[in-house]
Amino acid sequence: MDYISLTIVAFLVAFASPVVLATDTAPIPEDRSQIPQWFQTNVAPYSQRKGTLDPSLEAAETARQVITVNQKGGANFKTINEAIKSIPTGNKNRVVIKLAPGVYNEKVTIDVARPFITLLGQPGSETILTYHGTAAQYGTVESATLIVWSDYFLAANLIIKNTAPMPKPGAQGQALAMRINGDKAAFYSCKFYGFQDTLCDDKGNHFFKDCYIEGTYDFIFGRGASLYLNTQLHAVGDGLRVITAQARQSDTEQNGYTFLHCKITGTGTGIYLGRSWMSHPKVIYAFTEMSSVVNPAGWRENFNRGYDKTVFYGEYKCFGPGSHQEKRVPYTQDVDQNEVRPFLTLGYIKGSTWLLPPPKY
Question: First CA to last CA across the chain, in angstroms?
Fold first, then answer.
């Protein structure tokens, strides 16, 4: 092979090699007080990220549009559904739907053909999206108050509720607040309220920061590859309560839940960190405060004993009275500093090419 051919081959190899950006490898610091600086450095606004984001996202952010919703009038629309329907299918621009404070009693679905949508509430005010759908009416995953199928979704400063009544202990009563099925979605300062199956974190790469999630049984479930940062997980009710039912089904699936600098609270005792709904769930808690409501066993015993060898349940440098591992189930992963590192970076959700901070109201 001559020199020119070698040069061309070398260029093609270099061009084809994946570029690993610093934001994908910079670990979230163990010191909670350093999170704001870490976030500012690694999740900078679009104006500072040009040339590093997904091309379709860059194009969308360049042509940002804002529409307003106010039930009292004086805005573009009075309902969220009207605002979403105004966005053309095949949309290629970022559309920020700015919501006035208030209670929006609507069941909202954003279909796959409307990407790049932001639902933005006013910081410090209550912007509540609520409905009462149940599995008996709609089926479990279709019962959600808010369902998002499209990619590049963002929500900030919202309260999302399912107001269906709490099921009696031992009874089935799935009623979702939120189902996220789109890829590359971010949630900032959002609160999710429900009981059984509050948040269906179902598919795609997702980021939750400064959020609050409340429920009883399996109140975070699905197949998402998700990073939860500085988020409170609050269990309510009596009887058996489980935070996660992550639905990974094989070693080859690239999904799982990571909870970093979170806080677990609730009523009563005996809350489990997760259970094996499917065969290969992957869930890790790091730097997380666990109150005494956490069951000393940590994780729900597997009904299928074969799952003892396939689950990945990790805890790393957690603290609080519920964090002691002496009585944990034997299949709890004893992760060390090297093993935990991939879970502590935006690389876990491929965040360097799509994750942006929330817009200003």
Answer: 59
Q: What are the structural domain ranges in the chain?
A: 20-165+172-352
Q: Is 251 a catalytic residue?
A: no
Evaluate whether 221 touches 254 at the Cβ level (below 8 Å): no
pLDDT in tens, 222-243: 999 999 999 999 999 988 899 9
Q: Is 197 a catalytic residue?
A: yes
Asked if residue 214 lies in contact with residue 198, where contact means CB atoms within 8 angstroms, the answer is yes
Q: Which CATH number fits domain 20-165+172-352: 2.30.130.10, 2.160.20.10, 3.40.640.10, 3.40.630.30?
A: 2.160.20.10
User: Which of 24, 202, 210, 218 does the annotation list as catalytic?
Assistant: 218
SS3 321: coil
pLDDT digits (tens, 9 = 90+) for 249-301: 999 999 999 999 999 999 888 999 999 999 999 999 999 999 999 999 999 98
Instruction: Identify the active-site residue in 197, 201, 202, 210.
Output: 197
